[in-house]
Structure prediction request, 322 residues.
Amino acid sequence: NGLLGKVWDDEMSSSMLGNRLRKVVQNYQAMNKYGVEVSGPGGVSSRPKLSGPELLCQLKDKVEVTTLTPDLQPFSSLPWATQLPSKPLSVELGPYKSCAVVSSAGSLRYSGLGKEIDSHDAVLRFNAAPTAGYEKDVGSKTTIRLINSQVMASDEHRFLSSSLYSSGALVAWDPAPFSSDLTQWYNRTDYPIFVQYQRYRRLHPLQPFYILHPRFEWQVWQRIQDNMAEPIQRNPPSSGFLGTVLMMSLCEVVHVYEFLPSRRKTELCHYYQRFYDAACTLGAYHPLLYEKNLVKRMNQGSDRDIFTRGRVTLPGFLKLNC
Ligand code: C5P
Prediction:
């Protein structure tokens, strides 16, 4: 094992970051944009560190993967509510035997993982991550694409017209108030998710397209905070962790690629862009550092799998005995 390089340490904390990034993270930790109403950790000693299996069961028990349906207020009284899927995502998608979650990390570049990724029954990708031109490293199958409201709204990503978004089912989310009150959120979204949703549905009426209930993002956030010894950023979890939990609810086994960096670890932010920033891997706005600590603790695969393939193995909730 001494020959293996170091893989992610599950006790990472903001104090271990470089100067610049530590300040950025501390800045976000001081903000509370979404009105989070719980206090931070009650003290390290009062909180036993849960084992991986205990963490998995907590996630399964305390997080509901729900999506918006036309019967929910305030949508039920709006004319466009009929554009929302009538049944929740969990009823229409899966169950799948094996699933791959493809982080968009720069360390996927030159990984040669494409074939392995495509061999799964379902593949989840994020935001504007392309497959065309990168098949060797990331594969070409897309079963679900998780997109944030910022990508939906920015001109740069041409969300309404680009063919990048046309394969598989789409699942969108937007950072909502901590209360998860749908009316409060509807009147104050971070980006115009509902306007863009309606436009996309009119152009592509046959493609399955869900919107995550904001309760989901904050329940996941609560699991992270409750299992960390320090206060985490009071912002929603990253797409990467939301997508991982989403797939755990639909699959028997989930392989997550390059969320915990392999030996290819790089400051290259995305495999598809020439942009370098360590914050992409370590987090700034999102509590990404702490998400990675949890994933490391829940991993049922080997450190070698992380080191060589950037691969983590998580059991789906379907087959988990709690
Ligand atoms: O940047 P974007 O959110 O589209 O990337 C998808 C997810 O992949 C992130 O939310 C994050 O969880 C993960 N990621 C990472 N390291 C990177 C880039 C992305 O862990 N360098």
